[in-house]
Amino acid sequence: MLANYLIGLREGLEAALIVTILVAYVVKIGRRDVLPRIWAGVGLAVLLALGIGAVLTFGTYGLSSAARETIGGILSIAATGLVTWMVFWMLRTARDLSGHLRGSIDSSLTGAGLGLVLVAFIAVGREGVETALFIWAAVQATGETTMPLAGAALGIATAAGLGWLIYAGMVKINLAKFFTWTGGILIVVAAGVLSYGVHELQEAGVLPGLNALAFNVSALVPPDSWYGTLLTGTLNFSPATTWLALVAWLGYTIPVMTLFVLKSRQGGHPRSGGPEQTAPTDREPVPELAP
User: Fold this and answer.
1) How many CB atoms lie within 10 A of CB 132?
2) Which end of the chain, N or C, is less packed with Cβ atoms under 10 Å?
3) 281 and 169 Cβ atoms separated by less than 8 Å
4) Which alpha helices (DSSP H) does 109-209 contain, by range?
């Protein structure tokens, strides 16, 4: 549940910041008439995420066990790739997210501003699709539905509340530090999802080595124990791990985490004279999201 709360919080906060910047900018320039277009794009993005979640959930019914395991393995690996891309994209973009979005808004504010529907849809829809795919992979890995979905829902609700507070000017968050710390945690979570995906492909017979175990600590960490469930739900830890799954976990975690730390340190120096800023109200200038 904790991992799903984190992914819901992080993805939800990204989406909330995007919506906040879009709304604040059009209010600042006196184009309140296009606000319904922004919310229309947000609504379509939410429907897209829910639709993808429904397809992933119900689309595998009637398939053989091997087919479901193959699909689950492939989508888990795809979810790992998406989360990795998202972590590095936000690490690179957080400093000038508002500037990037303002450029998109300016180019879309023609006539009735219908282009803003597409801007909001793409910006928020990307977060929604990533969330749906990652949460689906977590549900498959744990074999539960209630706890992962509840964790993700709580994370998204928290993010929505933070987004409103930021817009109202009541709180300020060091976004660079937030996305750096959560990014590092999500890399570890994504490594577990990747390892699970490899194991699923082994179960389906697509990859070899199902019976070649690197370790088996089921006696020390029973899968049905509270701590076994916690490790599975947060890190996708398997007490019986194959060599191929272990190699995949190490082969992903070591280079990706190393690159992430190096990139974080390179971008960790604030610009001179740049105070910490957040999304504005309609009385404030639209900021750069500097740390």
Assistant:
1) 23
2) C
3) yes
4) 115-142, 146-167, 175-203
Asked if residue 125 belongs to a domain, the reply is yes
Domain that holds residue 220: 2-266
What is the Cα gyration radius of the chain?
A: 21
**Which residue is listed with tokens 């800023």?**
277
Residues 196 and 108: their CA atoms lie apart, in Å, by 42
DSSP 25-45: HHHHTT-GGGHHHHHHHHHHH
Is the Cβ–Cβ distance between 7 and 187 less than 8 Å?
no
In whole angstroms, give the CA distance from residue 13 to residue 15: 5
Query: Which of 197-221 are b and which e, b meaning 16 or more Cβ less than 10 Å from the residue's Cβ?
Result: bbbbbbbbeebeeeeeeeeeeeeeb
Q: What is the mean pLDDT of residues 193-203?
A: 91
Neighbours of 67 (CB within 10 A): 12
The DSSP string of 85-117 is: HHHHHHHHHGGGHHHHHHHHHHHH-STT-THHH
Q: CB 178: neighbour CB atoms within 10 A? A: 17
Residues 6+ apart with CB under 8 A from 119: 22, 38, 41, 101, 104, 105, 108
Residues 185/6, Cβ–Cβ less than 8 Å: yes
Tell whether 148 is covered by a domain: yes
Count of structural domains, the chain: 1
pTM score, whole prediction: 0.68
Q: Which residues, at least 6 apart from 39, have a Cβ–Cβ distance to it below 8 Å? A: 120
Lowest mean pLDDT among 85-94, 106-115, 139-148, 201-210: 106-115
Is residue 283 assigned to a domain?
no
